[in-house]
Amino acid sequence: MAAGKRETERIGWIDIAKGIAILAVILGHTTPGGGTMAEKITRGVIFSFHMPLFFILSSTAFRMSSDNDEFLRKTERAFRHLVVPAAFLYMLRLGLNVLNHFGSIAWKSYLMEKINIFVFGSGVAVDVMGASIPALGIPWFLLVLFLGRSLFDYLHLKLGRKQFAAALIACTLSGVALGKLQWLPFSFDIALAVMPFFAWGVFLKRIDIHHKTCLYGALSFFIWGSTLLLSYMTENSYLELACRRYTLFPVCYITAIAGTMFFCYLSAAADEVKIMAPLRYLGRNSMYMLWIHTMDYAVSFVWSITGNGFIDAGLRILVDILLFLMLMKFMDFMKKYGFRTKGKISQ
Fold first, then answer.
1. Least confident of 76-90, 102-116, 192-206
2. CA angle 231, 314, 50 (to 5 degrees)
3. Strands 126-128 and 131-133
4. How far apart are CA 53 and CA 282, in angstroms?
5. Extents of the domains making up the chain
6. Is the dihedral of CA 96, 343, 17, 333 positive or negative?
7. What is the pLDDT of residues 272-312, one digit of tens each?
8. Contacts (Cβ under 8 Å, ≥6 apart) of 314
9. How far is C-alpha 83 from the chain's CA centre?
10. Taking 80 as the threshold, does the pLDDT of residue 58 lie above it?
């Protein structure tokens, strides 16, 4: 069965892949890049594919707009489901910071800094015309997903096949080049650079993911591993979108796509296994888990006590899962007593 179902239907293996990926995100964010060799390798392996996987699968489960009205509806809905939560999470973190440091805040400079962080910030600190802007953090991904997928949908709607392909290539090259020169507001240079991942997601709709799963999964694993090894051997580095590190471009894109495909085939093989239900549930609600992960710094004392990156990552995953389950129970309670959200969260 190919991936191209109706947008409103859930596809089991996609949910499993997202469940694996969101756990990998937490592991990658907790494992220090400057730690032991095992920690460095683990982080590199995860970063080589985890964000591209979300971009790819977001377009695999996305139905392209067929006219201007549909594009506007989809863009408005995506804005509510991606940009509004990004702004809300940022404001929530800002509010907690204000409560903790209220007496020592120089309000004018403080507010200007926080506005600049949301506009110019990225997953890491960024230099804008000589000024150092602290990291925005995880919300950068939500902004890039909104901007990138909306642009991809618009270009697909307005351009013919050849012009569309040329535009994607131009966007990608521009995004990578800007990543070397000047990062754009709302990480728009990354939104340009990830166009190939959205394109691969559309292509993935046409693939029968359950056909020769073991063979193609092994082939994907080989390509992923060999290209990542090449990256380490030549540059001692890997793809890291937030840092605009496009190691051995465009080889890093092959690595990301191959890693994504390996986990897609692995998820397809696990799709019929009943014990995968919790992972499928996590993937189906991965955006909520990302919200929890954005705010889990507030309880970092729980998962930063051992000094071992892997143990701390395990504790952080357990804490985030517990908070995630509490959030889902709360949402179920709200729905039971009359509160209804407008549709599913766009993933």
1. 102-116
2. 35
3. antiparallel
4. 16
5. 12-278
6. positive
7. 888 899 999 999 999 999 999 999 998 998 888 888 889 99
8. none
9. 14
10. yes
CB contact at 8 A, 25 and 123: no
Question: DSSP state, 128?
Answer: E
How far is it, in rounded angstroms, from Cα 284 to Cα 240?
25
Q: Which of 159, 226, 164 is nearest to 198 (CA)?
A: 164
Cα-based torsion angle of the residue sequence 256, 202, 67, 193 in order, rounded to the nearest 10 degrees: 20
Confidence of residue 339 (pLDDT cuts 50, 70, 90): low
Residue 9: predicted pLDDT: 64
R_g over Cα of the chain:
20
Angstrom distance (rounded) from CA 248 to CA 177: 13
Q: Is the dihedral of CA 236, 240, 245, 246 positive or negative?
A: positive
What's the pLDDT at 1?
40
> DSSP string of 252-271?
HHHHHHHHHHHHHHHHHHHT
Q: Which of 83, 84, 196 is nearest to 145 (CA)?
A: 83
3-state secondary structure of 132: strand
